[in-house]
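Cross-posted from the bioinformatics board.
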Amino acid sequence: MSKEYSDVDDFASDEEEDNQVLITGKDAKKNVIQFDQEEDEEEQEEEDEEVQDEEEPEDKVVQLTEQQIEKEKQRRLKKLKSDKKTKHKTGVVYLSRVPPYMKPAKLRQILTRFGEVDRLFLKREEEHKHQQRVKSGGNKKTMFEEGWAEFIRKKDAKLCASTLNGNIIGGKKGNFYHDDVMNVKYLPGFKWADLTEQIARENDIRQAKLQLEISQANKLNAEFIHNVEKSKMVNKMKQSKKRNQQESQQVDEEVRRTFKQRKVASTRASAPDSQRQSQPQSKALNDVMHSLF
Amino acid sequence: MSNSEFKSLGCSKWLVEALNAMKIVQPTAIQKACIPEILKGRDCIGGANTGSGKTIAFAAPMLTKWSEDPQGMFGIVLTPTRELAMQIAEQFTAFGSAMNIRVAIVVGGESIVQQAIELQKRPHFIIATPGRLAHHVLNSGEDTIGGLKRVKFLVLDEADILLTETFSKDLATCVSILPPKNKRQNLLFTATMTDQVKALSDAPQTEGKPPVFTFEVESVDNVAIPKTLETTYLLVPEHVKESYLYQILTSEKYVKSSCIIFVNRTVTAEILRRTLKSLDVRVTSLHSQMPQQERTNSVQRFRAQAARVLIATDVASRGLDIPIVELVVNYDIPGNPDTFIHRAGRTARAGRHGESLCFVTEKDIQRVEAIEERINKKMEEFTDVGDTAVIRKSLTKVTAAKRESLMAMDKEGFGERRKLQKRKNESKEKTHRRT
């Protein structure tokens, strides 16, 4: 399955389109967890919280008496536990096909019939495919190929899969999507984090590797700079030596190090033998030559 | 008339006028020698420096003969690279526009069906690369390739490279459908005399045909590169080449000049392109692992000076005629000294001034010596960019950019497709052997 979402860009590319949808989902969750952030930072959700959200409750805390703070803490702890539980309870469904040109908002509306949907991701069709479709006179709208949806409760996800899978969307008879057959699969033991985990891990590895390589390159560079300075020094020493000795004796240039040289290979007829590439002529080539002149 | 020269060589009036309109007035040595002989109907082998007008040397007599008796599928020109084929086709179209000439380009990387349709229309001239033409010969019907049996001219441009193992199989297929060798005229043009070309010029005379006319400008003066070309070298360690290149490209002298950078491998070309692009140099590239559309685009971009730096492998080393090129950088030194001549020949064309710079690493000394021996000229040391400038201005920046582009390439899987193709071919060969 990793193949389907191995490309990070795919995730990013959808943002303009279904960002609102995603954010609404996130906001809903934020409201739930808003209070339990300041002290239990290690428990923070993976989602990035905005600074504003953090400040508001702080002001409130100052005004409260100690007893109330204690109460508040208790409450928060409870909330946190329940929240952890809800995280356990989430269920993810996979949609192998999205009805043509259906937008995330519409799909969310359909899935919400079965329960609260948190996050939803649809994979857009590839750029060249889209271009080809438009070129050959097709619809210009964006099409989505497949998608994942996260239900807050597993129960709802299962219900959604068993009800919607292989059935038409239904609703009012005249609806555009009335007769589209859905394909929904509940993914047992699968969490939303599993989807993004691999990409995140790969990114991390790549970043670490990059840092390592850059530091290595910097070492090489430092060596190079050192060598350049050294060569300047040596050159100056040689010059002054020459001046002193007035070229009384030839300075012997001893060979300090030799490098293995890359091969020279010439095909020219008049090239010296040492450079010639030995080229056994094949029959095919001979035939061609005979048929030419 | 100022252009009576071309007329005196025997070219048609309309062609002389067309050449005149393009400010081509004075024939070069190879044109003077070859055009009359080809018009007489002799086979011809022509060798001359880069940028000395070999294309017109075969185009002019072919067009003259064709205009006397216009017929479909009059001549075939075979070239080793797609870009060269396109360039020659452009020139043919330009010369013959007054005569409603039809020229077909048959090269790889483009629609086979489209090409077959075009061949059915019987174009006057076909400019092709051997691989794709062979494919048509093997797979197309009689109505598409039947006309090839009456071809009057066969031209092998850059014959030295066409007559190697790489092309032999496809070339044999292409030639097999043409009329027998004494019914057509064969023209070979090259800047290098290889064993194969030599062997052909020494080949016994075919019956019913005048002897082969061989002409070599090179033998007159033993200098293989244009006189207006300045050759310099720069000693530089392998891992800081990029920094030097960047510094040179952004140095005051070259900040505006168009230049081609030659590398030995497609991977190097891709790394350099990404690195320089991230450093805001207007750069484009040309190598065999790009889709044909992109290849064509990048040559056009470079021609139109939308990009000022072209990074290329040896696919661009031959024949491409882009007059604006001022500097050729040999980022890697080629193993074959003659490749250097071809690469350097992208600049200093038709009497213009040009420069060629070699990046010499500790392992390339022998190669450079071979080149110097070949061109009969000692290179001078390049002094415009000093070590201090590189260390101060570009070293850190470029190394970081290079690593980043390496990472990006790794992520995007550069070269995967080629590996896949290779594996496929190998397995195909294996099954072929078994059966």
